[in-house]
Design a protein that fits this description.
198 residues; single chain; Rossmann fold; 5 strands; 9 helices; alpha/beta
Length: 198
């Protein structure tokens, strides 16, 4: 069974990921993999350098993510070029890791994918779990966490698919409007139920 775990900014997805990891359940993390596939020597790295030139590299030959970000930020065509290199590489590596865990006897693997619905990756998983916080709680947490003004926090939240829209798409919604203890107890119960399903 492969579960796709997702959420919105400041909803608590990373916390849920950590709770799951603490139970010894393998996690395939899209963010970590997206950094790994662009390391020197990797196929995606070679394609990025040949598409964007050696000017985007640090002295140690690694990609200067900030500089690359500047290039694609205002250029939809270049952003599309980058996405067409990185996204397939990330998907391929995620599938390899998940298959490897399942072959080694794991019955449950979690794929932590921030943009699960936006990137239309639900075909890679059997079920989807969404970590949900009410929009006003999401806003409050983000301002607190990143020391943002209300306006800065709102613009980050509004750049994502609305959390209430994601809620309609998810198989399971993990409510995270209360304490960490409540969240942990919900996640452990859910893991228990999932393991005991036929």
């Amino acid at each position: 069974m492969i579960i796709g775990l997702t959420g919105g900014i400041a909803t608590g997805k990373s916390t849920v990921s950590q709770i799951v990891r603490n139970q010894g359940i393998p996690i395939v993390d899209a963010d970590i993999i997206s950094r790994e596939v662009v390391m020197p020597g990797k196929e995606a790295y070679e394609k990025i350098v040949s598409s964007f030139g050696a000017g985007i590299l640090h002295e140690d030959e690694t990609i200067n993510r900030a500089q690359l970000g500047e290039i694609i930020f205002n250029d939809a065509e270049k952003r599309s070029v980058l996405n067409n290199i990185v996204h397939p590489a990330v998907r391929k590596e995620m599938r390899l890791q998940a298959d490897s865990y399942l072959k080694s006897g794991e019955s449950l693997v979690i794929m932590d994918i921030p943009l699960l619905f936006e990137s239309k990756l639900t075909h890679m998983v059997n079920r989807t779990w969404l970590v949900y916080a009410k929009p006003e709680i999401q806003l409050e947490r983000l301002m607190l966490r990143d020391d943002f003004t209300e306006q800065q926090a709102l613009s980050r939240i509004q750049s994502q698919m609305p959390i209430d829209e994601k809620k309609k798409l998810a198989d399971i919604v993990i409510e995270n409007n209360g304490s960490l203890t409540e969240l942990e107890s919900r996640v452990l119960q859910l893991l228990n139920d999932t393991k005991n399903r036929p």
